[in-house]
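[step 3/7] inverse_fold.run input=structure_tokens len=240
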């Protein structure tokens, strides 16, 4: 009976749509809508006509990300620009969506670890693509025999150094967004407590209504933009 109860609870939790899942779906739908609108608006722009509105903003972002990819990864990997555009826009929107009352997807460690895992896998994909099997020598202690490096054993320090980026890049993003949400929540409860001391209007969180918006803008918008850019740049640097 106990095992059956545990299984039923696990199944219920498995199919429960949490606020984070809702936010992830919403972010994906918003981005898809923006990209589709941009595609059709771009087709309507004439060759001798200057872009404006959404087309102008998107082209500025695309040009900036492409320049970073070429500068950091080189012209050969310019084809990865669409991935980095999506990565940057996804993280930015995930951070900003908290302004309209939704849960920040990047405030969930599962989401940031998933993105960090893609960065981690990318290390090996690019390594094997451009260095072939010789990439594995990086993880070995080699000795020189007649001018050639022969691997003799695995270098544990090198193996650990490859795992470190996966952990650091994931926890850095999650920690900053989670800390911002926690500070905002604590400030909201503090202002609510202080507002209760004000006669007549004490039933309303007047202090919170005045001070929470600037706090949200700082943590969700400003810090969200910085963290999106940092995560994107670190992924490029690790792949370099």
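[step 3/7] decode complete -> sequence:
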């Amino acid at each position: 009976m106990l095992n059956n109860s545990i299984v039923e609870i696990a199944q219920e939790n498995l199919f429960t749509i949490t606020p984070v899942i809702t936010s992830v779906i919403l972010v994906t739908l918003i981005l898809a809508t923006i990209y589709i609108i941009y595609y059709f608006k771009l087709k309507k722009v004439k060759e001798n006509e200057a872009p404006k509105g959404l087309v102008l903003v998107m082209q500025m972002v695309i040009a900036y990300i492409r320049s970073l990819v070429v500068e950091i990864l080189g012209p050969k990997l310019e084809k990865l620009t669409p991935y980095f555009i999506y990565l940057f826009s996804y993280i930015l929107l995930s951070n900003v969506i908290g302004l309209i009352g939704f849960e920040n997807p990047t405030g969930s460690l599962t989401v940031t670890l998933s993105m960090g895992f893609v960065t981690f896998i990318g290390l090996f994909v690019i390594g094997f693509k451009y260095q072939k099997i010789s990439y594995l020598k990086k993880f070995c202690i080699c000795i020189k025999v007649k001018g050639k490096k022969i691997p003799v054993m695995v270098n544990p320090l090198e193996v650990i150094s490859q795992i470190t980026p996966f952990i650091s890049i994931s926890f850095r993003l999650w920690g900053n967004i989670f800390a911002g949400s926690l500070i905002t929540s604590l400030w909201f409860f503090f202002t609510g407590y202080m507002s209760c001391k004000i006669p007549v209007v004490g039933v309303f969180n007047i202090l919170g209504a005045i001070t929470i918006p600037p706090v949200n803008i700082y943590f969700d918008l400003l810090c969200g933009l910085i963290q999106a850019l940092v995560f994107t740049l670190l992924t490029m640097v690790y792949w370099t």
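[step 4/7] annotate
Residues 1-12 have pLDDT under 50 and may be disordered.
The first strand starts at residue 140 and ends at 145.
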